Amino acid sequence: MDPMEFIQHSAALSNSLGFVLDEGASELVRRLASQLGIVSRRCASFREGAAEFRENVQNLLPIIQAIKYSGVELPEKRQVELDKLSSLLRDGVELTLKLLASKRWHVYQNLRLWKQMEKIEKEISRFIQLLPVYIMADVQQMRAEMAARFDSCERSRQRIEQSLWDVRFGTGAFVAEAVRIQQEAEEERARGDGVIVALENGKRIVREMLIGREDQHIVGIHGIGGSGKTTLAREIIRDAQVKAHFGDRILFLTVSQSPNIDVLKARITSFFMGCNGYASYDHLSQWTLQQSLPDEQPRLILLDDVWTSQALNQLYFQTPGCKTLVVSRFNFDTFYTLKYEMEILSEGDSMALFCQSAFGQRVIPPGFNETLVKQVVNECEGLPLALKVIGASLRDKEEKYWEGAKARLSKGEPISDTHRCLLSERMGISINYLQPNVRECFLDLGAFPEDMKIPLDMLVRIWVETRGIDEEEAYAIVAELSNKNLLTLVKDARAGDSYSSYSEISITQHDVLRDLAIQLSNQGEINARKRLLMPRRERELPGDWDRNSNRPFQAQIVSVHTEKMEEMDWQQMDFPKAEVLIINFSAEDYFLPPFIDNMINLRALIVINQGTTNAVLRNFSVFGNLANLRSLWLEKICVPQLTDTTMPLRKMKKICLVLCKINNSLGKSAVDLPQIFPGLVDLTIDHCDDLFELPSGMCGLSRVRNLSITNCHSLQKLPADLDRLSNLEILRVYACPNLKSLPLSVCELSSLKYLDISQCVNLTQLPEGISRLTSLEKIDMRECPQVMHLPMSFRSMKSLRNVICDEEVAWGWKEVAKAVPNLNIKIAEKCFTLDWLDE
């Protein structure tokens, strides 16, 4: 039956059965299909979904024409259903118009609009599925075609899963686009495009102080918070003349308000001795250090964010050939005479920087209220951070929002060194323009230690557990905050020109913005706050926590930053609503707070030790009552021994061990890991140098979908029964130099989609049976120099879509590509930087 016969036949049926549809429905379908076509061309994040939705809508047209108005009065129920279809089509048209009008940097808003579109697609699918049987039976052929095309519920689910999968691979549109925008800005600055005059002047002056004055060993940069001090410092160490003079002998350290002096001294000692990681400083005298230097070549130590002269006194070493550059809000004139005070940006530079954030170009666009823009720029008083944040917050806003921002800014006092909080208050205006969920996520950033590189995975996990959102929305919020200059995305330097996984992305935040997040979170009565935060590390808990401990705290997120804590140092406090607990400390042993025992709703626990050695945790028995715990992050901890009496954590989904001492705690034969963690789906072990072998017991964790073993330099082999992980989708064995082979059982992981073996420099070959990985979509084998030949079986892997490899082995993959359609081969960029050692 051709389409015209189908329409005529169906029309006759509908005439007899009394179907009625709005005469404008056909036009609505045409409009919706047309606009979805534009969306698929313009919106990269939704291109695939929009194209598929458009195809489905176009195929709806014959059905609408077949059951259109017949002139016969219908039963009310049937007419309501048909009216609803017309309403859905109108809603779809309106949503596409909104999506097309929304700018690409409004990531979270665009995602919400698209999710509404997916709901409409599901409803249209339901309409097709529920068409009366006596109509569909007579048009069986069309019914079969429609069933194939309109299974939108399943297709929508698959698209969402795929987009989330892409984000976890590092190809997700939201985070990838945000990283790309930041990289373009850095490249533009490196090329000198749109150079800010004050920054160039400052770089020239400080460069001359560092290179031209051999009689001076210490130089200072000072200025108000948000004036661009750290930006200037980073530009200096990237400068060609500075790099030529000091070579790779440059150390960048962030000191912060609550510095760990011992750790910083150890880093400096390692730098002088020419070794990586941490060298023991103990009480090494400056004279001994000078005598033990391997040479007197020029060295540069950059101390950023120094707050006290006491800290500077302990970190400044007068050694031959070494220069120290101190970056601070304060002028430590007793230490140095060579210094540079940050210049406030000129009117022209201020306008250019503001317009870049507000309009995406360096000038005011034609037709915009030029006077109003100049008034807002003037209120930022030439401070780069304020210009960038406030400009981004007003992007695409109507003029009334600009008027409101100008009015609120003009009420503030002038910003100066004596008014540190005023900059935060002014930028607080930009936070008011965020959508509620995005605003809450921004405030959550204040819970992390100052100057910390926050792993993207850690942050996303917290938001998923506390904000009622899925991972895709969480990634969209990260991109939104990045686009508004409220956080910075940092790509692992080893990732080269493209990152392969979300684990290669971290987040940093300017200390002024962190202060703002804490300031806004600390408003209101302490027991009623959503977040209970310690701004910096202290010897004991804040006094107002103790004074108010007689009543329950309603905080959802609790953040504790202390030094060594004993049992008697803790107060008994009640947190009935706490879902996230972040413990940050610096000590060799640490007594976990007893109040954890009563945190019955705790979903995520993060324990980070910033000391020089791994810490022993005491009071680990508190885990026995954490029945709702879903995520655990331990960093630089001696992992406690698990026994057969360890209380099962049945809801635990994700465990991450970073820089930990495993001490065979997971490999005891008596320990039944599946019994203790029956629901575990994600396990990460990173930089654990005493992990020699992955215990076979881990293979009983049959629900695990993501297994990541990275930077474990002692790892020699994987379990022979790895195939017991039947649901494994992601296997990352990254930077494990002593791993020489993969077990044959890896070829039986039928669900595996992503394999990362990059930087396994002693891995000699891939198993021939790897073609049995019928679901494998991506493989990353950067810096595997001994894997020079690929198994012939790769040519039969039709599921494979992406490969990242070195140039030396790319020829082999190009041969594979002849047999595997749509295979994308990415040659990794060579990375020679050692910046990652500073993490």
Structural class: alpha/beta
Unreliable stretches: 1-23, 69-74, 132-165, 278-287, 413-420, 496-500, 832-839
Describe the main β-sheet briefly.
Answer: 13 strands, parallel
Strand order of the largest sheet: 9-10-11-13-15-17-18-19-20-21-22-23-24
Task: State the end-to-end distance.
Answer: 67 Å
Rg (C-alpha, Å):
30 Å
The number of E-state strands comes to 24
Beta-strand residue percentage: 5-15%
What does this structure look like?
- This protein is α/β, with parallel strands linked by helices and 839 residues long.
- It contains 27 helices and 24 strands.
- The strands form four sheets. The chain has a 13-stranded parallel β-sheet with strand order 9-10-11-13-15-17-18-19-20-21-22-23-24, sandwiched between helices. It has a five-stranded parallel β-sheet with strand order 2-3-4-1-5, with helices on both faces.
- Helix 25 (543-547) links the parallel strand 9 (531-533) and strand 10 (557-562).
- Helix 1 (3-17) crosses helix 3 and helix 2 (25-42) packs parallel to helix 4.
- The longest helix is centred in the first third of the chain and has 26 residues, at 76-101.
- It starts with a helix and ends in a 12-residue tail after the last strand.
